[in-house]
Each structure stands twice: as structure tokens, then as C-alpha cells.
Amino acid sequence: MQATLNLMSFNFSIRRNLFYLIAVLLFLSSCGTRKYTVKSDTKASKAADAMANLRSKPLYRFITDWTGVKYRFGGLDKGGIDCSGFAFLLEKEIYGVTLPRISRDQANVVKRKNIDNLKEGDLVFFSFGGNDVDHVGVYLNNGFFVHASTTRGVIVDDLTLPAYQRVLVKSGSVN
């Protein structure tokens, strides 16, 4: 009789533990089905939208392939690239256009366009250090552009930010 009581107690203990295990698993799995939303007004979500809205799939692939590559003055490869080198490679590979290598010279060969009329692949030029052009990026859409940032590497950025608006000196197309 003692053995039967021990066996019943043991079976009850197993059933109770099994019940708790199933309850915990159900709870955890229900947590995994929650829908998490990203605020659609964040800078990251807007940059992602700009990338998703690119008409040129080769441009999309080019940018995603280069995103995060570190800035290196004079660089022209995945080990490091500068802004004019990035624009130079992008325009050549995606649009078949050969630009000069330096941003100031690149600005001299573009046909000026109003910022409101920019199209995918147009260039935007900045002067962070005075009057001369010293930075270039490639316009995407909806106020976003891609460039090789000196601090963040190749990145999609918001052209409407005051920091860029204050130093934007020219925009236009190569054709």
C-alpha cells in the first residue's frame, strides 16, 4: 500500500510539473505572437521607406552593399571610401556616367536643379568648411540622400535636416 501511495504521489507530481511546463510554454509562445509596431515617423523608418521606394533595383543593391562602409579620405573601396569616391562609383556603376573624382569638380559638371525638382540619382553638394564644395551625396527620393559620412560611413540621410539645409550649396543632374 505504501508503494501505491508513493507511485500516486509521484504521478501527481509529474502531472503537476507537466501542467506548469505547458502553461509556461503557452505563455511564452503567446508573447511571441504580439505585433510590435515601429513608429512610422522615425528617421530610420523614413530612410527605410526612401530605400523601398527606389525605382532602380540596381541602385538599391548598390546602396545596401555599401551601407556601413567606413569613411576614409581618398578611399575608393570597401576598406574605406570618401564622399566623392562613393558618388563617383555609384554614378559610374548605376548610370554609366563618369564623374571627376573630387566633389568640387563634380559640382562643376552638374546642371543646376532646384531641390524640389531632384530625381533619383541627382547629386547634392555641401560646403561644411567655407565657400567651396567639400561634400557630395546622391539624392534618392522624399528628401533622402545617400552619402559617405565622415563619422558614420555610407548612410542614407535626411536632406531636410537643418544641419544639411544650412550647408547645401548646389544640387543637380549630370545629364
Automatic annotation (TrEMBL):
Gene Ontology biological-process annotations: proteolysis
Domain NlpC/P60: 53-175
GO molecular function terms noted in the UniProt entry: cysteine-type peptidase activity
SUPFAM superfamilies named in the record: Cysteine proteinases
Entry superkingdom: Bacteria
Gene3D superfamilies in UniProt: endopeptidase domain like (from Nostoc punctiforme)
Pfam families the UniProt entry points to: NLPC_P60
Keywords: Hydrolase, Protease, Signal, Thiol protease
InterPro entries: Murein_DD/LD_carboxypeptidase (IPR052062), NLP_P60_dom (IPR000064), Papain-like_cys_pep_sf (IPR038765)
Family: Belongs to the peptidase C40 family.
PANTHER family documented for this protein: ENDOPEPTIDASE NLPC-RELATED, MUREIN DD-ENDOPEPTIDASE MEPS/MUREIN LD-CARBOXYPEPTIDASE
Protein name: Hydrolase
